[in-house]
Amino acid sequence: MGNLRFPTVLCIYVQVIAAIWIAILPICSAEIRDSRIDSDSRAMIMFEKFGFTHTGHVEISVKDVAWTSTQQGPDPDLSTMGFFLLSDESLVQVLVELEENPNYCVLDSHFITPLFNFKELRRTDNTYNNSYPVVDANEYSLFFANCHTQYRVSMNVHTKMYNLEGNKKDFLPAGQTQLPSLYFCFFVLYAIFLGVWIYVCVKQRATVHRIHVLMCALLLFKALNLICVAEDKLYVKSTGTAHGWDIAFYVFGFFKGILLFTVIVLIGTGWSFLKPYLQEREKNVLMIVIPLQVFANIASIVIAETGPSTKDWFTWEQAFLLIDIVCCCAIIFPIVWSIKNLREASKTDGKAARNLAKLTLFRQFYIVVVSYLYFTRIVVYALITITAYKYRWVSNGAEEAVSLAFYIFTFYKFQPVDKNPYLVLDEEEEEAAAQMVALQDEDFDL
């Protein structure tokens, strides 16, 4: 039925396989969505992904449907253009079918759940509107297929995806309905954490440095970010749209992301509590990380607001992942430099015990930062992959729990105190500490 060539099949492979990763990043801030497709010849266009229960529904409305040919030929077979649902389990089967027959039309597959094709359009104005119950509970992706890629399709698409809870519509996917409560609980914990930190800083105001003020701002924006995402999810759950809470979430998330990486870099350099200045290479790291974080936040907003139906959506997603990896690698360097500097200083300045304490602290911080980045960038994604879609909230809870543990460790170790045990030590410990430094140089490898 179709007329697919090898480049088209390869394009389908890329788009379908990329759909697997969409659960990792937020696609949109609402499950009531309007999309515009303009002169698009892609063989498959993904709109969104949603976890359905046995009471799930999909509502689709298309209007202003038009198509133009890039070459001379007969009118297209409208049954080769249409919408369908595809589960992750069926992805492999569909790919096998395409590999066995490059001319195969996806709409003919027995592994998809067809919704409608363009033959069902109202002839007078080329529109369509219908609601479909989802009988088999699962996580599905909504696709549009065009098996004649010599035709460019234009249309406005309005979609609603929800599960029924009695007579009420729940617009959050199954597995994410718990997120409003989850994020609100973490907001309460961070609000208490912020209150404790302010109390400690006021009590120890004589030893408060500029880094402690930045750490306080980080906690504030983290708490505000959590309450905004909780309200965002709550409104999406009940109404399908965020009612402006997504904007507040983006704003506070923007400042939280920049402050988090900035604080890690500054603590790693020992700025303000070990030295009042930054070296040139440390300034360069900040000059790299901060602009990249700005761009990463812009990319995350584009990813969330446009959706995978946009032509450049996967490019923005790849850019976001690449920038995040670069930032994660960059913030490690100042910690490594501090450790090396302390190693060298312990052998020359006669203050082995003090340097050993600092060295131990920065080594611990190095390990914790690496572990935090590894968990939030790799382990969380693994949890998403191995857990059923109905328990997707577990990965969100795990990520927030590890983030809270990281914050508590960092703030506790670098809190303002009168006699910091890492900075003030008895002179009689120097000789033993010098031997310990030598031993640790051999044991610890960055």
Task: Describe the fold and architecture.
It is elongated and about 85 Å long. 53% of the residues lie in helices and 17% in strands. It has helices at residues 6-18, 88-100, 179-203, 210-239, 245-269, 280-306, 313-330, 332-346, 352-386, 393-413, 430-443, and strands spanning 32-40, 44-51, 56-69, 81-87, 113-117, 128-134, 139-146, 151-165, 168-170. The chain starts with 5 loop residues before the first helix and ends with a helix. The strands form two sheets. Strands 1, 3, 6, 8 and 9 form a five-stranded antiparallel beta sheet that branches. Strands 2-7-4-5 form a four-stranded antiparallel beta sheet. Helix 6 (280-306) runs antiparallel to helix 7, helix 8 packs antiparallel against helix 9 and helix 9 (352-386) runs parallel beside helix 11. The longest helix has 35 residues, at 352-386. Strand 8 and strand 9 form a beta hairpin. With 446 residues, the protein is α+β, with helices and mostly antiparallel strands.
